[in-house]
């Protein structure tokens, strides 16, 4: 009959090595002082017995679990998966363990995820989706958690908020369209209405108005390829068809581009100029060749994890911090003159 898994204890290692239990502990504690011969005996005994340090138990003794929850929706989308990859790598580099919690965009779903994080004694949560109610955020903070909000506009105390210069990026797209001779402008967005998506929409509309131009705004569904195709149908069946479309994300732009070419027989960029946002891998494919903005996922992950790892003063920790990062414009062939 199969036996249950039995973990080797530090006491067993100490007995085999002929040293004290505290000597084993010091051997596997970074920076602790251990005589070279003692270290050799302990390491050899640990390898022979298959011993591994119980980091969870060690952390809980310090009132730390080492767990950081990533609360995510739409994790299969290219941008979100690349951000998850960068965050988990940065967390692993600092000795943290990532717990991935899949949610939808509703406040209730995010709140439930945060309560799960509290029950697992997570040290922190990084929220990539939804916006937690202030009461549940307060509960997390009171439980000792630290919170990172990515692409959100909440100013909750005790959190780090990381955003991009979305409005400024939208202004650069407007300038590119104007230089390409475009006059009938449109913005294609989803119905998600997240702060980052709306900042791109509002920034583009305001920049156009400053140039004396109007913008047709269409919103539909989620930030998906399929929504992009439907948005193309809404925009390109108008009697006065737009000659330039800024899409809130690259996935929307890919769907719109395919519909424009294959359903409406339009040439890009001769008949229609298109820009996106995120610089997903597909944007560089020759079939799309999409001008877009690159999400600085490595910088976002570094900012988030560095803030979580910083042993700051408790009074400073309770204050609100924010970071605004730059989205680099990546020129390709979907805008004339790009």
UniProtKB/TrEMBL annotation:
InterPro entries from the xrefs? HTH_LacI, LacI/GalR-like_sensor, Lambda_DNA-bd_dom_sf, Peripla_BP_I
Q: Which residues form the signal peptide?
A: none
- Tell me which Pfam families the record gives: LacI (PF00356), Peripla_BP_3 (PF13377)
* Alphabetically ordered keywords of this record: DNA-binding, Repressor, Transcription, Transcription regulation
Q: Name one GO molecular function term.
A: DNA-binding transcription factor activity
Q: Does the keyword Protein biosynthesis apply?
A: no
All residue ranges annotated as the HTH lacI-type domain in the record: 8-62
Protein name as catalogued? LacI family transcriptional regulator
Q: From which lineage does this chain's organism come? A: Bacteria, Pseudomonadati, Pseudomonadota, Alphaproteobacteria, Hyphomicrobiales
């Amino acid at each position: 009959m199969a036996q249950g898994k039995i973990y080797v204890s530090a006491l067993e290692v100490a007995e085999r090595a002929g040293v004290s239990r505290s000597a084993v502990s010091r051997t596997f504690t970074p920076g602790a002082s251990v005589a070279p011969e003692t270290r050799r005996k302990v390491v050899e005994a640990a390898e022979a017995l298959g011993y591994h340090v119980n980091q969870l138990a060690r952390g809980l003794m310090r009132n730390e679990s080492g767990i950081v929850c990533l609360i995510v929706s739409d994790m299969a989308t290219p941008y979100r998966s690349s951000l998850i990859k960068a965050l988990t790598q940065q967390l692993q580099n600092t000795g943290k363990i990532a717990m991935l919690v899949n949610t939808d965009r509703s406040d209730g779903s995010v709140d439930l995820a945060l309560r799960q994080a509290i029950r697992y004694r997570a040290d922190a949560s990084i929220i990539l989706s939804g916006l937690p109610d202030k009461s549940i955020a307060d509960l997390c903070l009171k439980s000792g958690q630290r919170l990172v909000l990515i692409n959100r506009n909440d100013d909750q105390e005790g959190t780090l908020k990381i955003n991009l210069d979305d409005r400024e990026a939208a202004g650069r797209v407007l300038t590119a369209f104007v230089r390409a001779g475009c006059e009938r402008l449109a913005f294609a967005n989803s119905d998600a209405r997240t702060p980052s998506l709306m900042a791109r929409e509002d920034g583009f509309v305001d920049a156009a108005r400053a140039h004396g131009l109007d913008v047709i705004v269409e919103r539909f569904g989620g930030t998906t390829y399929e929504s992009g195709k439907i948005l193309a149908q809404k925009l390109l069946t108008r009697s006065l068809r737009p000659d330039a479309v800024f899409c809130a994300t690259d996935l929307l732009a890919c769907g719109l581009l395919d519909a424009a070419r294959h359903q409406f027989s339009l040439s890009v960029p001769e008949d229609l100029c298109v820009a996106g946002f995120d610089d997903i891998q597909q944007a560089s494919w020759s079939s799309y060749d999409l001008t877009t903005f690159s999400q600085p996922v490595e910088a976002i992950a570094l900012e988030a994890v560095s803030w979580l790892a910083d042993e700051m003063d408790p009074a400073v920790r309770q204050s609100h911090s924010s970071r605004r990062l730059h989205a680099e414009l990546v020129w390709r062939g979907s805008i004339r003159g790009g």
